[in-house]
Every structure is written in C-alpha cells, then in structure tokens.
C-alpha cells in the first residue's frame, strides 16, 4: 500500500502538503492541489486511518465497555451505539469486562487514548478511580445508563430514571390486585439495581403494602438467577401471586420456573420485568415489562462523548456545590422516562377461593 | 502523554533504540538499556499501541464481520472469538453489516489492513470479490463457519458440517415416528442454509419419505420468520406433527406459533432446530437442537487468521485441482461434527386417532 510520503515524492511536495490537500486544510495552490490528487490517483493511495488519527492526535474508534456481550441487552445497546458512532465516522470496539474490574482496567489502560479516543461505559463493574484515570489521560468517559438521576456519579453520564421504572412495575401489579409479591433484585442489595428496588418500595408504600424481607431475593442478573430465586420464593411462600424482577432476564427465569412448577403465567403467577429486551417480546407468554429508552440513551451517550472529545465547553452545572467549588459538574443527559408495556405475563390474581 | 521521541531525547538515544529496548530487539548495550528504561519511568511513557502497530507495519486489532449483532448467535460467537483474540493480545472490532454488502464493503475498505490486520467473516452476506480484494490489500480473511466442507469457498475457512446437522435433526424426528414434517429454511433455497436442508432430505430419503414442496417454507432467519412460516405450514396442512427449522431462531418462532395456536409442544407439535444458542437452552420447553461447535470454530478461526497474518506457509492442498494449478488451495480447518441435543421440544407424534 503506498504511503503518504510516496504520494508526496510523486507529486514533488511535502507530506504535510499532501495531508492538507486530503483534509481540505491549510493554504494550498490550485496547481499543487491538482498535482497531489493526480499522485493519489496514480498510486492508488488510501488514507491510513490509524496514521491520520495519530497525526491528528486522536484515534478513530470509541470503545464500549460491557459486562457481558452474551447478555442480550448489550448487543441491542451496542447496535444502537454503533449506528450512532458510524454516523460520525467512528468505529466501535466492544470490550467485554465479564464484570471483572481487573480486565476492565487492562482494557482501559491499553486502549483509552491510544486505539480509542473515548470510552462508553455500561454496567461493567468498573472502578470509578480507573475511569477518572482514563479521563486524566485524555480519553473522555461517558456512563451510558446511570440509574439515579438525582445522585450524579461525578462523571459525564446519560441517566435513566430506573427508580420510576421500579415504581411503574410495582404499581402495575398492585393495581391488578396483587398483595403478595415476590421481588427479585438482580444485583447486590446496594448494587446497580437498588434504585429499581427503591421504586418498587415507593409503589408498595403508596398502596399501603409492606415489602417483607421474606419476599425479597437477591439473585444473579441472569435467566438462571431469576429461575432459582423464583423457586426459592415460592417454596418459602406459596401464596405469592406475582413476581417483580428488577431486570427482564431474571423475569424470564421466573417464567421458566413457573413452567417447570406447572404454574400458568399469568393465571397462577404474574411476572413483570424492566428493560424490554428483545427476548421479552419473543417469550410466550410475552413479558410485561417497563421499557427503558435504550436507543435514545445510546444516541445521547455517543453525542455527549463526541462533544467531550471535540472539547465542546462543558455546560456549567446549576447546583450550588458546583457553583461553590467553581468547578462545573460533569454533564448529565436525562433520557426519556421509562414506560410500562403490558403484555401477556400479568393479570389479576385468582380470587382467594381459587388460590393454591 | 509523552512520545517515544521525548523518551529518546531524555535518554540521549535515537527513537529506534528506545523501540528496540522496549521490544527486546536489536543489540543495545546494558548501560544504554538502563538509561532508556529510566527515561521511560521518569516520563511515565506508555507504548502507543497504534504507533507500535504502524511502526511494525501491522495493526493490533482483528475485525469480526457479522450480519447482525442483535442475533444472539453472533454475541456468543464474538465472545468466543474475543477470548481467543485476547489470548494473543489482539482487540476485536465487531462490524455489523446488517446483511448489507455495501456496508460490509465500506467496513472492509476502511479497516482491513489499517485498523485491523485481519478479518473474520461470519455469514455477513459479503461479496467474495470484496473479500479477495481485502486479501490482496494484505489483510488475511478467514470465513468462520463455512457450511459445506466438501465444497471449499476458495478462501481460508473453518468448516462445519451443516449437512450432517440437518441430517441428524431430520433423522431424530423420523426415528420418533414423524412422517409429516414441516421444514423451515432460514435462507434463500440456494442460500447459506441449503446444506442443512440437503441433510434433512438425506434423512428423509433414508427413511423412505418424500419432502413435498407444500411442507417446505423459506423464511427470514429470525424468531418472527419461523413464527409466520409455522402458522402458514399448519394452515396449509394441519396434519403436520413436527417442524424442522434450519436454525434455532426460527425454531423458537415455531414454538411461539404453537403456543399462540393453543398447541402443546411436544405433545401436539415437535420442534427441532440447529445451532444450540443460549435461548434454545432457556426456552420452555427447552429446544431440541443440533449443537454446532461454536467455541471451537471461533478458536480455530482465530488461530488460522493469526497464522495467515504471521505468514506461516500455507499447507499445500491435496486436491488435484490445486496440484494441477501449482497454487496451494486456501486452508480449510474442519471443526468437530455437530451433535444432536435432545431436550423437551420433541416427542413421538400422537397416534392418528388422537390427531387433530
């Protein structure tokens, strides 16, 4: 493959002039420009992306850190991110951390600021200190689905009101008449799904219900995790008539458990999740869930990252902390509110006389 | 971030010497080596991956072309590829072609040989001419799941015997006693699933059965495609007792259709697919399928690609064509044979007196 230098030699100009012509920058006379373009044509020169990125002090990819590409949410999200990234001429490198902060750190150290000019982070279980170090090295970082808009993370982020999502899911079950609801939290109790759980508790309080500890299980954020937790909940209290899971995967696991226990969903057990991943739509019965604006969040995240890369001035925060410190707070974009999507996995509980 | 040149200046040596020290190459005296390492330490220099790749005439990523990252097979495959790639210090760029040869060509033109030193191709609907052009530009190409080991593609590939997979799926249904089997081909009739269909026909012939055109549907290789095709097949012939789909996604769609028609799987309708993606294991009933060696194929593909990148001598083909032309045929690695995995979606048909 011919190099920029060979094009320059062929055209009798400096490499910098060739670069200026190809980038439409600097002052280059019409005759020189013609000579350069002829040399490009004659040699079949293609601009070297990595070389150009180096020359300009930036790299042509962005990195997306995900906890597991095998979790169907991330491919859907990655697809939306990639669409947005491609629209701005960026390639997407997907890095699987497998929820391992060490592996995440290795990725960040090796690619941020070199291969990739910016990093999008989903719930990849990364150490915030590592992310701040990445920023300090010159590669902007954006958290893609920050779950608590009222509690900013101190890094640029796209926030989704997941507490509202939990509240909508809970209120739906309670409005149908459910009083004994098993809750599956797909993270540590204080982990990333805590806001979703808090929203469910909000709904319970508004309906005058308790959320006894015996009705709450912490589980792996997987189909299998939801399966095991559901069996455990129903063994502990067979009078449970509904399951709220903080994510669609464990909700799908709850439906599996119901099937294996011979329970009909929704006649014997209602199930509701959060997110609206594709398998939620494709399951039978189709899963009632609270849809979060995945594609919109992806677009907002890419836009925000690009603005940070291009050094657009940070919007000053309006909060008093920021004003007092004189430091603008990192930007936060709030995505649209989650929405309840009622499908076939929820219904009113059977009346007591028909209960198991 | 300090550059190699700054390290060189600090140590009073040439950039080439710094590079040699960091790469443990060339002859460098002990005193010089010590000075360079001190300068690296003092300036906090980190080797610039893209720069190093450029300097060495190679790039540190490989690209994986997939037709849709939203199809659950590809994330599973990408995960296996990434594991293998990371083991050799490569990063993986996943490119979604969305089955659009134009988009695929754009990716190939922009990244092959520049950002990425080699390309892995799954069923991405790419033009072979584009792939050969990519090879000619110096970026090796490996087809990851070639479906017809007896009909090599003329490009390096990992082959999986998908005709055998179709034969195993068909034989399983026939051994259970099914005689009226609906067939869903998840590609054009002559497309990538043709070998799987041929294998089914092999099994039918061996069992003395016809495969009437009225029992075969071509469909999109999606859950929805399988759903529609199944409803269509059962409307056309309600006496069908089993569905063979050339892929798990349409097989899962067949189970959805059965659920919506009030048919019990497997009592009223048996369903079998091919691949063994995660949702096949997670569906209820769990899907009987023919598992293909996904992880093994990913590892073989990465190994083959690395050998091509590193310029290992091509193994000469034993075929007479290759011998006659004097050109070694592109290498083909054959992955292990597919295996039938019997789960809960297949059973003997109900006897005629109980049939619908």
UniProtKB/TrEMBL annotation, chains A, B:
GO terms for molecular function: DNA binding. Residues 2-56 form the HTH lacI-type domain. It holds the Pfam family Peripla_BP_1. This is LacI family DNA-binding transcriptional regulator. The keyword Cell cycle does not apply. Keywords: DNA-binding, Transcription, Transcription regulation. Gene3D superfamilies: 3.40.50.2300, lambda repressor-like DNA-binding domains (1.10.260.40). It comes from Paraburkholderia kururiensis. The keyword Transcription regulation applies.
């Amino acid at each position: 493959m011919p190099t920029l230098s060979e094009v320059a030699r062929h055209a009798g100009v400096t490499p910098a002039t060739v670069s200026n012509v190809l980038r439409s920058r600097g002052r280059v006379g019409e005759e020189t420009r013609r000579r350069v373009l002829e040399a490009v044509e004659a040699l079949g020169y293609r601009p070297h992306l990595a070389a150009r990125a180096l020359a300009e002090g930036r790299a042509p990819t962005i990195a997306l850190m995900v906890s597991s590409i095998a979790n169907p949410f991330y491919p859907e999200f990655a697809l939306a991110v990639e669409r947005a990234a491609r629209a701005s001429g960026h390639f997407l490198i997907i890095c699987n951390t497998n929820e391992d902060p060490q592996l995440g750190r290795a990725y960040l150290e090796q690619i941020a600021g070199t291969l990739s000019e910016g990093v999008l982070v989903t719930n990849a279980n990364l150490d915030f200190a590592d992310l701040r170090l990445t920023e300090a090295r010159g590669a902007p970082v954006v958290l893609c689905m920050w779950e608590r808009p009222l509690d900013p993370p101190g890094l640029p982020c796209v926030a989704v009101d997941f507490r509202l999502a939990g509240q909508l899911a809970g209120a739906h079950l309670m409005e149908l008449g459910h009083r004994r609801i098993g809750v599956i939290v797909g993270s540590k109790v204080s982990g990333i799904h805590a806001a979703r759980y808090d929203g469910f508790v909000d709904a319970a309080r508004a309906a005058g219900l308790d959320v006894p500890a015996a009705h709450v299980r912490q589980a792996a954020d997987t189909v299998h995790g939801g399966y095991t937790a559901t069996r455990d909940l129903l063994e502990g209290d067979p009078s449970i008539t509904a399951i709220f899971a903080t994510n669609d995967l464990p909700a799908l696991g709850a439906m599996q458990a119901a099937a294996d226990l011979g329970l009909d969903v929704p006649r014997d057990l209602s199930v509701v999740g959060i997110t609206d991943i594709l398998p939620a739509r494709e399951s039978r019965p189709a899963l009632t869930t609270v849809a979060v604006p995945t594609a919109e969040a992806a677009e907002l995240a890419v836009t925000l990252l690009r603005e940070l890369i291009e050094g657009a001035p940070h919007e000053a925060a309006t909060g008093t902390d920021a004003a007092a410190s004189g430091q603008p707070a990192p930007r936060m974009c709030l995505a649209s509110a989650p929405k309840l999507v009622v499908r076939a996995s929820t219904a009113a509980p059977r009346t007591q006389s028909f209960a198991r």
